[in-house]
């Protein structure tokens, strides 16, 4: 369980406010956002680029993004992996995340924002279980037994002791999904999370993610090439 | 609780254990050199600090001018002029200067019937202030037939060493002071006999001292060689080992025959050697630490992707820096402690075998050596941490 002292130590951003606000609901907002390598004309044809949008926990946001529209870039910007954009992104409306330090981001990623990346990014030489445990021990939202439970639910229970590089892409993707669900979050960012899964496995994974978001009261921002019918979105945007 | 254990295997330390051990050994040697040099420096200070023959905290040394092939035969070049005396007096490391006046006439010493010998003698005089013992009998006025003499205790010692081989009996200080001697002075075609007796022995002045009033009178009355200057000077100084004093004397080619300054020069040389060794040791330490930092950079570069991934999923760069650098602390501590232990062993061996357990030295290492070891440990930990932190933040 995170102590108030630990929270204030690990997040310089928090030192700007009181510890209690950490549990306050986030607002994810974007304003006039555009990658530096996109021409301004994109703003006219997009429902996201160059617009002022705001997302609150609990919302289900679907972003339809054909190839080349900057889908992965958008996810990377939102998560703070890259900053080659113009415009602003705010986690709580006031500060642009461009001002965040490495420590600020670490704190946010530990407790408030989670992501499933298109290229998965697992530790290749560690086992599935180790990959998940390393994420879990950072901020345990569930008891450690939940790891096995989720793995079995998504059909990779037998792969727990296998090194990730020996797993298929579909298996790796499911590992990445479970990893994202082991922490507390108010926003779950998804970048083509089912690209290597068949329909059956996709639906199972979607069910799990919706459950986990619901118990946290969290929002999901789902970016994909097309609409996904089994994602009950409350907002729909075309990138 | 957040543990570093599952993270450890993510750091690729590389399979080359040999190069790692090389840097450990290198650091160990550097630290050992540094600590041992400091300890030897301390040893020198303790050994060379002697209970010197000092009066009221001053050292007295005599100096003459060095007789070289060039100056030989030119007496005026080998004596001190009044100007030389003034120059010496002006130096900050010289408290006072007193010239020794020597006899310019012929004087012979005989012991009458008691000790059958007669010898030519040299006598000198100096201001009373410079004498270490001045008995109340040490004065002379014109017309007085008795001349008090102060003799160097070294001479008595020497006499007692050689007396048996000459068929003479050894003499104690008290006996020597009771032997009446005859001083025969001659010059300018005149001669005169006076009675002399030893009234004191000097530990400081290695000569035969007569009252200044007597020598001045006798030089005037019987002196054949003209007064030219002083062949010897006595310097009163606070520290005969003062390097400034020694280099000044060297510069002017003044020679002193006191062991004290010889010791001072030896001390200078030894201090120089160990300072050089210490500096060398410091350089080795610096190089070894640089090697360590290269090694660290290599580890982090090799583990770059893993570390970036950890940062991506929310691990704190600060926490990672602390834990990664913490891995190296035991290494640094062990190396320095081993070097410290070896220094202690060397000190014990030096004290016991080379110095025969002399009291001036202590067997345990000096506190400054231990303090230095601690400083080295702290320094290496801090620089290590800062380097790791900088590298990790760059990954972000």
Question: Could you explain how this protein is built, in words?
Answer:
- The complex is a heterodimer of chains A (239) and B (396).
- With 239 residues, chain A is of the alpha/beta class.
- Chain A has helices at residues 4-10, 42-45, 71-79, 102-111, 128-136, 145-153, 169-180, 199-216; strands at 28-35, 52-55, 60-64, 85-90, 113-116, 187-191, 219-224, 235-238.
- Chain A has a single domain, classed as P-loop containing nucleotide triphosphate hydrolases (Rossmann fold, 3-Layer(aba) Sandwich).
- Chain A has eight helices and eight strands; from the N terminus they run H-E-H-E-E-H-E-H-E-H-H-H-E-H-E-E.
- In chain A, the strands form two sheets. Chain A has a five-stranded parallel β-sheet with strand order 5-6-7-3-8, with helices on both faces.
- In chain A, helix 8 (199-216) links the parallel strand 6 and strand 7 (219-224).
- The relative contact order of chain A is 0.19.
- Residues 6-22 of chain A have low confidence and may be disordered.
- Helix content of chain B is 49%, strand content 17%.
- Chain B is of the alpha+beta class and 396 residues long.
- Chain A binds chain B through residues 10, 81, 102-103, 105-111, 121-123, 125-126, 130, 133-135, 137-139, 179, 183, and chain B through 1-3, 6-7, 9-10, 306, 309-319, 393, 396.
């Amino acid at each position: 369980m995170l102590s108030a002292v630990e929270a204030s130590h690990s997040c310089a951003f928090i030192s700007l406010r009181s510890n209690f606000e950490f549990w306050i609901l986030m607002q994810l907002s974007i304003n006039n956002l555009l990658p530096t390598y996109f021409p301004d004309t994109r703003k006219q044809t997009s429902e996201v680029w160059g617009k002022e949008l705001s997302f609150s926990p609990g919302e289900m946001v679907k972003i339809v993004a054909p190839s080349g529209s900057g889908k992965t870039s958008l996810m990377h910007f939102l998560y703070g992996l890259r900053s080659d954009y113009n415009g602003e992104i705010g986690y709580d409306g006031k500060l642009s995340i461009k001002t965040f330090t490495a420590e600020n981001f670490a704190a946010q990623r530990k407790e408030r924002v989670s992501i499933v990346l298109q290229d998965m990014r697992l530790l290749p030489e560690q086992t599935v279980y180790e990959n998940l445990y390393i994420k879990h021990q950072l901020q345990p939202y569930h008891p450690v037994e939940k790891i096995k439970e989720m793995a079995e639910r998504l059909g990779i229970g037998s792969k727990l002791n296998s090194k990730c590089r020996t797993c298929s892409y579909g298996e790796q993707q499911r590992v990445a999904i479970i990893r994202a669900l082991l922490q507390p979050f108010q926003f779950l960012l998804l970048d083509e999370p089912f690209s290597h899964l068949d329909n059956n496995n996709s639906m199972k994974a979607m069910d799990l993610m919706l459950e986990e978001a619901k118990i946290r009261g969290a929002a999901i921002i789902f970016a994909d090439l097309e609409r996904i019918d089994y994602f009950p979105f409350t907002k729909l945007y075309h990138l | 609780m957040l543990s570093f254990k599952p993270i450890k295997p993510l750091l690729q330390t590389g399979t080359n254990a040999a190069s790692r051990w090389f840097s450990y050994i290198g650091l160990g040697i550097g630290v050992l050199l540094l600590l041992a040099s400091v300890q030897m420096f301390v040893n020198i200070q303790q050994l060379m600090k002697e209970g010197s023959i000092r009066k009221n905290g001053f050292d007295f040394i005599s100096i003459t001018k060095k007789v070289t092939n060039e100056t030989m035969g030119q007496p005026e070049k080998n004596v001190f002029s009044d100007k030389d005396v003034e120059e010496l007096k002006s130096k900050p490391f010289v408290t006072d200067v007193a010239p020794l006046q020597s006899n310019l006439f012929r004087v012979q010493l005989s012991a009458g019937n008691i000790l059958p010998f007669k010898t030519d003698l040299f006598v000198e005089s100096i201001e009373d202030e410079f004498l270490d013992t001045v008995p109340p009998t040490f004065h002379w006025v014109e017309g007085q037939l008795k001349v008090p003499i102060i003799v160097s205790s070294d001479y008595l010692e020497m006499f007692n060493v050689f007396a048996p081989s000459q068929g003479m009996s050894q003499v104690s200080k008290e006996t020597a002071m009771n032997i009446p001697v005859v001083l025969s002075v001659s010059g300018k075609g005149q001669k005169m006999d006076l009675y002399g007796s030893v009234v004191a022995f000097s530990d400081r002045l290695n000569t035969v001292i007569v009252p200044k009033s007597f020598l001045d009178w006798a030089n005037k009355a019987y002196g054949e060689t003209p007064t030219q200057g002083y062949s010897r000077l006595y310097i009163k100084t606070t520290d005969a080992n003062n390097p400034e004093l020694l280099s000044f004397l060297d510069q002017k080619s003044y020679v002193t025959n006191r062991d004290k300054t010889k010791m001072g020069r030896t001390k200078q040389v030894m201090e120089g050697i160990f300072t050089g060794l210490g500096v060398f040791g410091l350089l080795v330490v610096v190089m070894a630490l640089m090697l360590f930092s290269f090694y660290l950079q290599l580890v982090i570069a090799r583990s770059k992707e893993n570390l970036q991934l950890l940062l991506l999923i929310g691990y704190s760069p600060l926490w990672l820096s602390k834990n990664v650098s913490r891995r190296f602390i035991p290494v640094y501590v062990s190396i320095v402690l081993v070097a410290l232990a070896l220094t202690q062993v060397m000190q014990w061996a030096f004290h016991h075998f080379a110095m025969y357990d002399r009291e001036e030295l202590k067997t345990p290492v000096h506190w400054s050596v231990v303090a230095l070891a601690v400083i080295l440990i702290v320094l290496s930990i801090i620089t290590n941490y800062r380097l790791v932190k900088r590298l990790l933040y760059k990954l972000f």
